Amino acid sequence: MAGEIKMTRTGGRPASSGVIQGKYALSVGLPDKLAPDGWSWTLLSDVARLETGHTPSRKHPEYWGGDVPWVGIKDATENHGRTINSTSQYTNTLGISNSSARILPTNTVCLSRTASVGYVVVMGRPMATSQDFVNWVCSKSISHHFLKYVLLAERESFFRFASGTTHQTIYFPEVKAFHVCLPPKDEQEIIAHILGTLDDKIELNRRTNETLEAMAQALFKSWFVDFDPVRAKAENRGPKLPANLDELFPDNLDGDGIPCGWHSGNLLDLCELKRGYDLPTSQRTPGAFPIVSSSGVSGFHHEAMAPGPGVVTGRYGTIGEVFFVKGDYWPLNTALYVKNFKENSVRYVYYALKQVDFQKFSDKAAVPGINRNHLHEAAMIIPPREVQVAFERLMSSTWNRQDANDAESSTLAALRDTLLPKLISGELRVKDAEKIVGRVA
């Protein structure tokens, strides 16, 4: 097996001689935990080539922009557990040749080791990574799918493997000493297939919902930004809406370029935003109500501070994202939430906020922030209530389908999270797991 692994280029100190045991199938050093029958504890670097990454110099803009995907922390946090085919930043041959970064092959497994520890992605095409990652190029002895699931299952263990006060980091002496508990290759593939069947369906639901959301946004833009139904009537051309919808739209634009009878104002005319509420992590108690931050749902709590359905956007840190919340929720202090919809449709307010250029209202500080009073000044078009309601009715079946997909994905994710540690530790054997998955997938 070792003969299949080419020399790594991580450099630095040798492997740690200590032992820090993970929860299921990973350990720093060789643990005294017995492997299941037919499995064996194996030094990971014996079956997968260990690689790190690097960041081409930002002082040379010519190193950036090109055809080489470059995996950064943002890509990992946004795609945890997935195979990625694109990244938020790209480098090029010049950037690679003038740095310690290397282009790694398809199916390389990447683990974030610093900044945000424990995020896992798999390369869907050749890519390079930043130095925030350790990467494994798998040999024929280990399935990259199986390794991915081991790393996903051991996320809590990475904080035991890491050290540091301000920022937790998994250092290379520990990484070089990683041991993985491996079943035979065919069993690895079966385990990965069982878990992958669930993940594939979850991913299909996610992509379907992205398509449905794009359809809703396209219709909103057509009606309320481009005013297509009004322009079509004014120019006496098709395609025309059904009569019950067509009659809701005027047949001309006024002198300001908006549909006659519609109101042009600002965001405060549409709704009122309010800063969210403090909720330290130490005070959170598990419950049914989502905690919504500037970057989306960040947990659940037993209390809610805002009634649903609601709309939330970022106030501090992450700005520009807008979230629709179906039920009651707790908006965090890093977010702004809609306190008063002023008799406007909740969905209309949600999509209208998504049209706002939040960067115009950012304070441009190192950590971006927004003053809600400034955001209230954003220009806004407010159509009659009946047009907003018609939009909601027309799209209701689309949103219901999204809700059904989300509910199914939650059920499948719960099953996957139950099976994952049991399968990769050998506690549950594949024949029993296949029966369970076969009943729901």
Topology record:
Elements: E1 20-21, E2 26-28, E3 40-43, H1 44-47, E4 48-52, E5 64-71, H2 73-78, E6 83-84, E7 89-91, H3 93-97, E8 109-112, E9 120-123, E10 128-129, E11 133-138, H4 144-153, H5 155-161, H6 172-176, E12 178-182, H7 185-224, H8 228-234, H9 243-246, E13 263-266, H10 267-270, E14 272-275, E15 289-293, E16 296-301, E17 310-314, E18 322-325, E19 330-331, E20 335-340, H11 346-353, H12 372-375, E21 379-382, H13 385-424, H14 430-440
Parallel strand pairs: 5-10, 6-9, 15-19
Antiparallel strand pairs: 1-2, 2-12, 3-12, 4-11, 5-7, 8-9, 8-11, 13-21, 14-20, 15-16, 17-18, 17-20
Helix pairs in contact: 4-13, 7-13, 7-14, 13-14
Would you give an account of this structure?
The chain is of the alpha+beta class. The protein has three domains: 2-182, Adenine-n6-DNA-methyltransferase TaqI, Chain A, domain 2; 206-391, DNA methylase specificity domains (Adenine-n6-DNA-methyltransferase TaqI, Chain A, domain 2, Alpha-Beta Complex), CATH 3.90.220; 398-440. Helix content is 35%, strand content 20%. The protein is built from 14 helices and 21 strands. The chain has helices at 44-47, 73-78, 93-97, 144-153, 155-161, 172-176, 185-224, 228-234, 243-246, 267-270, 346-353, 372-375, 385-424, 430-440; strands spanning 20-21, 26-28, 40-43, 48-52, 64-71, 83-84, 89-91, 109-112, 120-123, 128-129, 133-138, 178-182, 263-266, 272-275, 289-293, 296-301, 310-314, 322-325, 330-331, 335-340, 379-382. A hairpin with a 2-residue loop joins strand 15 (289-293) and strand 16 (296-301).
